[in-house]
Amino acid sequence: MNINWYHFEKEGYYLSVRNVNERIEKLNPLYIRFTTLNKSVDKLISVLLDRYLVYLDAISLKESVFSILRESAMNAVKANSKRIFFAENNLNISNPDDYVRGMANFKKEMIKDKERYAALLEKVKFHCLITLAFNRTSFLMRVSNNAPIIPEELKRVENRIGKSKEYNDLGEVFADHADDSEGAGLGLAMSLLMLKNEGIAADSYKLKAEGGITSAYIKIPLDYKHRNVSYQRTVEIIAEIDKLPTFPENLNQIMSLINKPDSSIQQITEQVGRDVSLSTNILKLANSASFAQGRKVETLEDAIKLIGLSELNNILLSLGTKKILEERYKEFEHIWEMSSLSAYICRRLGERMGWKKTFLTNLVCAALLHNIGLVLLLSLEGETIEKLTDISGKKLLPSTLGLEEAALGITHTSLGGMICEKWNFSDTIKVAAEYHHRPLMAKKESRDVVFAVYLSDWIIECLDGKADPAAIHWEVLQHFGFKKDEEWLEFGKKVIEEYKAFQKYST
């Protein structure tokens, strides 16, 4: 293939174009060549998929497509590395006995000596090639490596792929992924199940031996129709929302009083003061890192005067939700703690952007409540969600949403949106609950809120070692003016240190 290559030596890959910010039509097709997967390649794949899928109006497929493309790339690198390992250990990869002996140690050795293998792959000119293209009906991907697959390998991999295409639920996948020696185990099975849940047929993934080249072909039809492979479990989970009580009447009365133009501070303070528990919680939240205004508030009337009625309305929403969920679900406390940190990061992001105080109060409230759907899902399906989170981290997926849909037929973001509908929350809170994992799907008028909540979660996850910074949506970073890779993480470290210092000082 005669391609004009541009070498990005520092990043460790070649591209068929000098600039990936070209108009998307000029990147059709686009070729990426590399010897091993690294953070720069991961970041490039993530950025390019954002561009292609937004253009093709299929951004909701990001998790599924990223998963299967990266899994295929990883398998291609492993296949090339396997040749080096067998040669170094004087094993004949075409000999069945040698093959079994070699595979017993290959995976462990490759993980242990990853950098040396990367250097050797470059030296002996083993490489992988990703091709991205599209037409009016499909998004097309091809992942190739320049090592011919032997019949024994092809047979094993095809058997695993064939089995993976038959899975209909998460239980079947977990029960049958012990042998992933050929790289077509759990990762590919989960990816294909995610695609199946999106309504994309099993034959969208094919492996072919083409002379000295081995290629995985992935075809994503753009007329896909989402389906639910776990419909019955979905019905049971949604039924939990019907069991939630209505929003506390005393809070509805106070919020109604706040919204009356002729209400006085004294009237509102008197109404709030009738509920001792509520008054205490308002003072506590008003003095928290997310809402604090620079000095400690001592009395309820001072709190209401200082923070303003608009902010009081948001505090009441937050406290009402907290009261209902903490009484019903044991997982709430942990989620509330994380959401409080997210709210503080959002506030600092908003201050960085110069957003108005009234907007910041809405943003903080949205951040506090954005994970209410996760409270339900963790409480109902804790073991499953824990397993999916672990897989997502190991596979470097952008989020667990695709896995949640495949396993349970519904995501915590969809549940969050339903709860917001039930309690008649504002659009600001609803969009944060629905789109904080898929920010590029949010409408432009909602992006300030959604992007801030998304980025706050990413800062927390990445600094906690639970997510890979390379998989972040770069459009979000550009929205907040972060230009260098490390700049947003440095911002995050500083803000989290501020939050911890505030918490320590206030206790």
UniProtKB/TrEMBL annotation:
Swiss-Prot/TrEMBL keywords: Hydrolase
Keyword Hydrolase: yes
Residue ranges of domain HDOD in the record: 244-439
Gene3D superfamilies: Hypothetical protein af1432
Residue ranges crossing the lipid bilayer per the database entry: none
PROSITE patterns registered for this protein in UniProt: HDOD (PS51833)
An MF annotation (GO) of this entry: hydrolase activity
PANTHER family: PTHR33525, RIBONUCLEASE Y (PTHR33525:SF3)
Protein name: HD family phosphohydrolase
Taxonomic lineage of the native organism: Bacteria, Pseudomonadati, Spirochaetota, Spirochaetia, Leptospirales
